[in-house]
Amino acid sequence: MDGFFNKFSSHHRNRIKLHLYDKEQSEIAKFKNLHEKKITILLNAVGDHTRAPLLSIDKLVYNLSSKLLTIPQLKLLSRGWKFCIEEKIIEPLNIQTEIEYGMIKIKEESDKKKISWNSLRNDIKSVAEDMIKRVNKKRISNLSQEEHIALKELKMDKSLIILRADKGNAVVCMDKLDYIERVNKILQDPKKFIKVLNDESEYDENLINNRLSRLLKEKKINQNTYDKIYATGCSIPVLYCTVKVHKAKFPLRPIIAMCNAPNYKLATFLTNMIKNYKKESQSYVKDSFEFTKILRTTSCNTNDVILSFDIESLYPNVPVTEAIQLGVELIWENNKIHKFTTMTKTDLYILFNLAVRDLHFRFYNNYYRQTDGVAMGSPLAPILADLFVSMLEEKHIISNPELKIKKMVKIC
Question: How far apart are CA 262 and CA 233, in angstroms?
Fold first, then answer.
């Protein structure tokens, strides 16, 4: 770098070096201050221990495994799922902006002293371009060396699995064998799951596309709708679990990743049909803030009692036959008025069954079919579950004038 600066006069060299030094110190101070704050918070959370307890780093990391995490591993995991490892030292655009600003200041000085600006500008441009090239090649990590080592250790340890917490940005560490055993226990419920021998995604894809082709031929759907929900290049959905760290014994919540499933587009299409005409139930409450407002404006007697009920594992426990019937009836009754489709009721039943019933999925190297309940991960699952719960309310609870019920829809 000194060779480049020798092209300038000593006065201009000093001014450029001083400006770059000030900029460098400013960036260093900014990053140093930021990371010192983070380190202080992390160290205060774990104290002077060299091993991590079950719950640590301000509830950001839950170690449910049989292994004790080291402090560097804990710090790494506490960064959360949204953390991105950064390697670039600085954005070139910021450097260019600072150089241009410095050139304006230098030009003002050169004009005062009647120094040739064109020659000086070309020299600065040459030096700046070379410096930007050098900066682009340099890298600085936002992980410490200890955290890089911890990252490699966790990656190489095949006995552990890193999972998402069910709520929030927390990270959960479990023994992989324990995780697989607990998921297999869920899948052993014969009322909801059946083990199958092969990947059935191609078979499901053909079933859906054959039905769509028939509807298109009969002019019950148009070409645009056909293209939107036609299944192609699909793969079998994969089951994974999040951990309910807010509940006792840390139960698992099974989720089926369906984005590329054969019936994903069809389920999205049917969901939108229901959404257009579904009304919120009388008991619906947006959130706890709205519930508080309702309580403040409600007059209660001394004998009144407030009860709270939690539906455990809602989606798997929704009877799929009844849920499909509710969805079809909602669309059919509104279609009598608005005439938005020429499909028959039978057509709708067939499409709903293709979308949510007998869903095939994979967990590690085994294949399964869900025979009852709606799969969490399906676009149809939330709205069908809500329809079913609303039906139960209207049938058994809301009709009772002595009861006042409010429902806050949560994934429970």
Answer: 8
Residue ranges for the chain with pLDDT beneath 50: 45-56, 411-412
CB 19 within 8 A of CB 5: no
Distance (Å, whole) CA 382 – CA 330: 15
SS3 state at 221: coil
Which of 226, 202, 224, 200 shows the shortest CA–CA distance to 212?
Answer: 226
Does residue 363 sit in helix, strand or coil?
A: strand
CA 311 to chain centre: 23
* Phi/psi at 193 (5° precision): -135, 145
Give the count of alpha carbons within 13 A of 50, CB side only. Answer: 0
Q: Could you give the 3-state DSSP secondary structure of residue 85?
A: coil
- Residue whose C-alpha is closest to residue 75's, from 183, 135, 6, 154: 154
| Of 30, 39, 47, 37, the residue nearest 146 (C-alpha) | 39
3-state helix, strand, coil in the chain (%, to 5): 50, 15, 35
User: Does the pTM exceed 0.85?
Assistant: no
Question: How far apart are alpha carbons 148 and 119 in whole angstroms?
Answer: 47
3-state SS assignment for residue 396? helix
DSSP three-state, residue 99: helix
> pLDDT tens-digit profile of 159-185?
999 999 988 889 999 999 999 999 999
Distance CA 96, CA 124 (A): 12
**Residue with structure tokens 């539906």?**
311
